[in-house]
Amino acid sequence: MASFSNVQECEAYERAVIVAGLPVDLFSDQQLAMLVKSYFQDVKTEAGEVEGVIYPTRTKGVAYVIFKEKKVAKDVARQKKYHLAKTAGYAELTVSYFSEKVFNSVKATLDLSVFRSRIVLESLIMDLKKKIPNLSFSPLEPNGTVTVKGSFLATKRLSESLLSKASSLFEKNKHFISEAREWSRQSSQRSLQRSDNLMQTPRTSVPETSKRGEVLVLDTDVFLYLKHKYGVYETTLNQYHILSRERVDGEVTTICLNAPVGFQPSNVQHVRELIEQWSQALSFELRKESFIFGEKKNSTKRNIEWACDQLRTRYSKVLINYYRTHVDIIGSSSDTYHFKNEVMKLVGRKVS
Fold it and tell me: Which residues lie across from 261 on neighbouring strands?
């Protein structure tokens, strides 16, 4: 699968554009690559010769088109919107110039308070600055939050570093595993008190859990999407008779997996590996957009929530999380882009 770094490494990014909105449901990956190449070589687009098309990529429906000349790439990106023919469902393509500058405005606010009881936050930030010098950090707030700004790739390395640090710290702390075993034991006792029938769902009524447990740490957004949009998550837990205890701490979610006595302990490790594979794949694919309410009137908040509800069925692959201060939408780059635009149109505002 191609990625952002593949284009950079081929030393052609100055002659490349990013094309989003491909009609993935109508054509195979190979057909889409041929369609894109043919379209952007068409004289009607006034484009120059296409050197190559990279598709599929890690983001479904998004391709990289590399032209022979840098000027052509800039001219194509300047128009921004293109429409395919009837045979391609009149799909609207969104084109942007491929440049590192496109990703230099990524800004995120991190809640590091989850690490406070295990590490000095100032030391953690110093280590992150050394590892990722391309990121700029705001002063640490008293509540443990810090704002970071940098390129997409730099923020991705930051996310990976924090998850690695969280995983390491939680592995050293066995309290959570013991807590999960106690939870499983109490859950079993309550289930047994309600019924003498032992032929119940293993995840809710097991007599005792095995001593060996597995703990993994995921990005919260990835976990929520995995749990609520990937039916395979719950199905797999049931299939392998695995008990799960999930704890969300801001941007980090910890999952403790355990198997009932009498079931294969190796199932726990196997399920952990599956979840890690799914979360890694999603981390490359997902993008999050947010509607921040701030000081906005309650009517604006209601309008945004109403608009999200109106679009929910049309964007079944987009996860919508409602909070008191904001709404998060999580999905592929193409889906979140179009979803946000349509929400802004529904509430009668111009897209920024």
Answer: none
User: Which amino acid does the sequence have at 300?
Assistant: T
Nearest to 315 by CA among 290, 340, 293, 291: 340
Measured CA to CA, the distance from residue 203 to residue 205 in angstroms comes to 6
DSSP string, 277-339: HHHHHHHHHEEEEEEE-TT--HHHHHHHHHHHHHHTTTTTT-EEEE-SSEEEEEEEHHHHHHH
Rounded to the nearest 5 percent, the helix, strand and coil shares of the chain are 45, 25, 30
Chain centroid offset of residue 325 CA: 20
Contact 148, 158 (CB under 8 A): yes
- DSSP reduced 3-state for 217: strand
Q: What pTM does this model have?
A: 0.49
Is the distance from CB of 88 to CB of 26 less than 8 angstroms?
A: yes
User: How far apart are the C-alpha atoms of 262 and 37, rounded to whole Å?
Assistant: 57
| Contact between residue 159 and residue 209 where contact means Cβ atoms under 8 Å apart | no
Q: What angle do CA 98, 101, 102 make, to 5 degrees?
A: 55
CB 98, CB 17: distance < 8 Å: yes
How does pLDDT run along the chain (352 residues), one tens digit per residue?
344 444 444 456 678 888 888 998 888 888 999 999 888 887 555 667 888 888 887 777 888 888 888 888 888 888 888 888 888 888 889 888 775 444 445 677 888 887 776 778 888 888 888 888 777 888 988 888 888 887 666 776 787 788 777 766 655 554 544 554 454 445 444 444 433 333 333 343 333 444 567 888 888 888 999 999 888 888 899 888 888 888 887 778 888 888 877 677 788 889 988 998 888 888 778 888 888 886 666 788 888 999 999 999 999 999 999 988 889 999 988 888 889 889 988 988 644 4
Residue 81 backbone zone (phi > 0: left; psi -120 to 50: alpha; other: beta)? beta
- Alpha helical stretches, state H, 104-174: 121-131, 152-172
